[in-house]
Amino acid sequence: MSVILQAMRKQLYYVLVLFVAPMLILSCVSGNKNQQSGVQQAQSQTEPQKSTVSVEIAPKDASMTAQTSCIILAQGSQCSVQEHAIELIRDKTALEQVWRKITSQGELPPVDFSKTVAAAVFMGIRNTGGYYYELGTTVLKDGIWTVEVIESTPGMKEMVTMAITKPYILFTIPKAEKDPVITIKQVMRK
Question: What's the whole-model pTM score?
Fold first, then answer.
């Protein structure tokens, strides 16, 4: 009987050490550090969030800097898309299709497609938490918006959740003469 109790105690110890303790540590540590390190919450944000992005407007004969507002419609770590993908969204029907890939709940965010286009970037499957997208620089040159999306990956010594994640970001950009170019910049945090 004592052999069975020892085996059960050992299994309980492994469960505590491997699963419960890291989650408790992460929840205690992540309180204020999430905002400082830029780590996004594990659940998706469904309310539109305004984010001001620096924009360089480069006319043919001069360059100047301006500000524009890109609206992040949703971003998070769980969606149904399992492959890396970038989708350009030009109408409400396409937005509804992408919205269903992101969430089965919540209302479709309002987008004025006469003035903006939307874009969705999906990272695909990742084996841990700590991955997320954020908007980088946005440049308008020769009638084409070039939008940099930063793919932030956890550092080698960073503590992350042990869960399968599928990060994404959905945002709008002002319309221009031609379709926007979306580039991905991978950044590993220290």
Answer: 0.65
